[in-house]
Amino acid sequence: MTIGSFYPPQRTLMGPGPSDIYPQVLQALSRPTVGHLDPLFIGMMDELKQLLQYAFQTENTFTIAVSAPGSAGMEACFVNLVEPGDKVIVCRNGVFGDRMRENVERCGGLAVLVDNNWGEPVDPVLVERALVAHPDAKILAFVHAETSTGALSDAETLAKLARQHDCLTIVDAVTSLGGVPLRVDEWQLDAVYSGSQKCLSCVPGLSPLTFSQRAIERIQRRTIPVQSWFLDQSLVLAYWSGEGKRSYHHTAPVNSLYALHEALVLLKKEGLENAWQRHKDQHFELREGLEKLGIEFVVDEASRLPQLNAVYIPEGVDDALVRQTLLERYNLEIGAGLGALAGKAWRIGLMGYAARSENVALCLKALETTLK
Amino acid sequence: MTIGSFYPPQRTLMGPGPSDIYPQVLQALSRPTVGHLDPLFIGMMDELKQLLQYAFQTENTFTIAVSAPGSAGMEACFVNLVEPGDKVIVCRNGVFGDRMRENVERCGGLAVLVDNNWGEPVDPVLVERALVAHPDAKILAFVHAETSTGALSDAETLAKLARQHDCLTIVDAVTSLGGVPLRVDEWQLDAVYSGSQKCLSCVPGLSPLTFSQRAIERIQRRTIPVQSWFLDQSLVLAYWSGEGKRSYHHTAPVNSLYALHEALVLLKKEGLENAWQRHKDQHFELREGLEKLGIEFVVDEASRLPQLNAVYIPEGVDDALVRQTLLERYNLEIGAGLGALAGKAWRIGLMGYAARSENVALCLKALETTLK
Q1: DSSP code at position A304
Q2: B300 and B182, same structural domain?
Q3: Residue range(s) defining the domain that contains residue B237
Q4: Which run of H or of E encompasses A76?
Q5: Which sites bind substrate (chains A, B) (predicted)?
Q6: What is the pLDDT of residues B86-99, one digit of tens each?
Q7: What ipTM was estimated for this complex?
């Protein structure tokens, strides 16, 4: 059998990511490849760093994009900051908190779990209790915006508690970056990772990452090497440093970085505050329509993510069949439930370029017709 | 300062990779993004697996592309196959053999080094001696085509020795895949990784990977979990398996996988044997011209890679200035020396789409003029 070229359809992506990609980003993606040590490329990398600093609202020197998806960004934080025997308080209120626990354990660390129900934010009272009970804990890890449930946690308060108990913070901002306020410096977060394919509306495959000076110092004080060569950020830093000669670490994903640069140029042009507001506005439009259809949200309004709307599947409705119809008839993707919410919820994303009235209108009408 | 879109120049890429990208591959790259669990995307992944099996000349069920560059593919092999305390014989005749040692040590393994001079192939006699001296060794690791020197080692013979001593093989085929014969099944190689940006002429950022049944069984017999969550192939397998329901592991780099699919469609269309011959033919053209310029090769003819020509920088020539002139005047990139060859050699790549007469002609004339 001869395999020919693959021509994907034009979908509207309203799942938990990848989100709709800006057309300009796809254009940037296919520009001519240059070498990863080409001076012009290095100049672009310097710009990219500045743009990432803007998106993260940080002046951290160590602000880069990991050459792999968000889960590698998560792992980069843990393998660099956790040494065998280290105690890490891990907040778990969805799939990604549990993945953090996995990471701690695979680093030889000891994970102390703070559990909240799926769909709820991380409870600072429980976190404080754990910090008091474990004065030897070195790190507090939590998910800012849980992609599996659509719950937003109070990163500022959690980070403050961590500092009071002399802990660094590792923060999953995969779904929050660009969609809701995230202020790395003001909130004094230490290690924050994200993904390219959510509210930045770039192609999947890169993980923006920033480390505070406190995090860098912790890495420099390590006594055993980082267990991952690929994710050892002390090696990667030499490539991204911008000071003097670049040293080769690995071949950068050149074209994907063009795309991320373009996505961030667009974000800067719109302005972070405007982007946050747009997500909120579109969320209100979507919410109004969903409520008219009698569809209920998983997360309380106070901690609901505008960019990721987890809603209960109405009773008697065939989950898979509805999603299949949306995809086949309307070329519209919404997300299935994950983990504890599998089969019980849908996740409707309004991320980045997907957060537009035409998307909301399509989604509402298509759902209305399909659910009839 | 406002940062605008980045418009890279059109370079001719004749370094050690990334190589010139097929125009069709760049077109495929920018096709509309679909979800990583979209049935049409999963269909493409199944085709991609078949195409990778063709490129590797294997029927291994576990044949995938790691969602990260070649160095992550290397790490995927080591973290999955090496357990703490395992003895691994590592052949070192360039930068990438030494990176293998790093990987073994970071996995808690014990690396036994077999050293050959830079520019020489791995010597099977030395390898056999090491296998005899270390009957408890569990793995033999070597680089098929050393990207840092341009030397080709005899993978078939080395793998045979490994089997005779009950060792699995980990083989770096980053620069060999698609450029010189590589027959995973016939040679009975166990864990083989490559890169997208070399002789496949795809964008950088993906690492084709294949595991034999023996390797899979070794992984299944592990007593401690793989230290990397992201690279734990027992988890990844569930996503790529193609049997029944796909389980989510990480968000696949959708567009990069379109590009790899297209690059492999082109390779299949040309035919592997034809591609190997084309690399050889272009190498002869280049060699003839370089010899006329009095330029000498680092590697003996018998083990010289056609796709990566490491040549000594003529005496009295300013290395950096020549490369800068080629880049600025001719938009031509050739590679600097790496490691022990830094400042002493250039690496001229003829990889994939770069292996064309027009590239060779440009390179020879530009070098001739610049060296005058």
Answers
A1: B
A2: no
A3: 23-268
A4: helix A70-81
A5: 347
A6: 999 999 999 999 99
A7: 0.97
